[in-house]
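Before relying on records like the one below, remember that each one covers exactly one chain. Contacts with other chains, cofactors or solvent are not represented anywhere in the record.
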Amino acid sequence: MPALTDRGRAPGAERGFTPVQVAEAKALANHLGGGSMASADTALTDFGREVIDALDDRHLMVDLSHSGERTCLGAARHSRVPVSINHTGCRALTDLPRNKTDEELRLVASRGGFVGIYFMPFLSPTGHARAADLVEHIVHAVHVCGEDHVGIGTDGPVTAIDDLDAYRAHLAEHVTRRQQAGVSAAGERADTYPFVVDLRGVDQFRELIRLLELRGFATERIEKIMGRNFVDYAQRVWGTDRPRRGRRCGVTQAPVAMGPVRCTC
């Protein structure tokens, strides 16, 4: 969807939009706030707050995946309903702009939001993410956010690739064009894949479940991560009992490093 320049253009559910991103990663500061790749970490603007209010009124998800840190924190604090970072990684593990800090993750979770871990190269400083990297980011996110607020947000297709050599050549051309246009992300190279290299095809989620079991995750926790947490989050946003500013939504986060946190929205 095009960038918003007035609150009246905030999309409504009647137009088919559900999640709406506040900022694009590669963008400079826009009318709402800053993207994660912008040269300056700008804050959420007054207009950005107005747009979030309009999105809240329409039961639309506010997604902060591509936002800069100050915009992310400001939006999470301002929204009167839980927000999402629906495809990201943990910057504490891999220090790249597209990954989120513990402060961002913790705040979103503490207000009843959702954090989805993506299947992207930014999970590893090598630019070649593997299943073990994905598991570590999930484990860290659960430690920071609590097991009720973490899930999967692949940020790409999950179908198998029949001809990896041909795909590799096509991808290298695509990334080179993005770099020449100045829109590539930090950590993105011509030899990187936009997926987890050893977690592809129809069995990838079964394999992820197996790996989480090996890390000691109980069945109930795995079910939450594999989908139930996002369904619960969607109900908090789309349901009829959405909280208004000044009311608590009743969501209690599981105990994490800083102790139990009750939703303050």
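The longest strand covers residues 84-88.
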